[in-house]
């Protein structure tokens, strides 16, 4: 139960970099003067970022990941419930792995 | 709708993100196990959980965990993997900017990808209570912290999350939030652009540049679409 002497610097560095990014994005958006055009464009940022997160994440899982995403999408449009969608998606991937 | 910050918002966020507790905990336990095997002490892992709170980067630096620790390699790895946070919190600006900085800046510390996506989908559907952001992110922390201790204590006897398909859970959350937030055909252009750019950059460039590139490509297409449709009245145009 101890902290190595050189670990303090490492933890502080990792914490500073990570918080710097977390605070930095928010701070930066407060600096720039947004035209209505840019502002309406930026309303698409969350969806674009989520798309950028999901596709590589699914590809990393493999073919069953792509099928899983489709199942989650259908489940979400059907019920709009995260838990149900997660269970069906993860269950699909699990089941496909049993047979593939 | 005005932005407010309420306790019931925090509860809403916790509940909305609760389904994620299990997969997050499964990977928290894996982190505890791997950290212990890499020679990270329990106290060190706890400090990392508390002050860094970014699981992917905490995992990624474990292979370099030999004393004396290589500061530069660890710093670069952390930066590459955590770069994406810039866009996540940038997108929180419209929601949180009417709140005082002394409330917002501490809130930003525990923003996580999955909980952020849950919060942003709710924002898109009209949520304005900033407490939801806190609740969503707190749910991830509550799943992660205790699980890392379990991984530390149980060691090798913890099961592999992949065995239960839980490695897919994170892609599943993002997919759910994407489809759940779909509003009109105007979403498709930005999403399509983001997806293509993200995959190309993901294949070619290390770190999370692909998230940044995809996000920017999506916004660029959204602006282009808006410009393009200025002379055409599209009734289902998203605001």
Helix content of chain B: 55-70%
Low-confidence stretches of chain A: none
Q: How many domain regions of chain B?
A: 2
Please state the structural category of chain A. mainly alpha
Percentage beta strand of chain A: under 5%
Number of helices of chain A: 5
Commentary on this structure:
- Chain A folds into two domains: 1-32; 44-99, no CATH class.
- Chain A is built from five helices and no strands.
- Chain A has helices spanning 7-31, 36-42, 45-61, 63-79, 82-99.
- Chain B is an all-alpha fold and 239 residues long.
- Chain B has two domains: 7-182, no CATH class; 183-239, no CATH class.
- Chain B has helices at residues 7-17, 21-38, 42-51, 55-60, 71-82, 85-90, 93-96, 101-108, 113-124, 131-154, 169-180, 188-204, 209-228.
- In chain B, α9 packs parallel to α11 and α12 (188-204) runs antiparallel to α13 (209-228).
- The radius of gyration of chain B is 19 Å and the shape is globular.
- The interface between A and B is large, with 71 and 99 residues.
Which features does this protein show?
heterodimer, A: 100 residues, mainly alpha, 2 domains, 5 helices, B: 239 residues, 13 helices, 67% helix, globular
Can you lay out the helices and strands and say which pair or pack?
The complex is a heterodimer of chains A (100) and B (239).
Chain A: H1 7-31, H2 36-42, H3 45-61, H4 63-79, H5 82-99
Chain B: H1 7-17, H2 21-38, H3 42-51, H4 55-60, H5 71-82, H6 85-90, H7 93-96, H8 101-108, H9 113-124, H10 131-154, H11 169-180, H12 188-204, H13 209-228
In short:
Chain A is mainly α and 100 residues long. Chain A has helices spanning 7-31, 36-42, 45-61, 63-79, 82-99. Chain B folds into two domains: 7-182, no CATH class; 183-239, no CATH class.
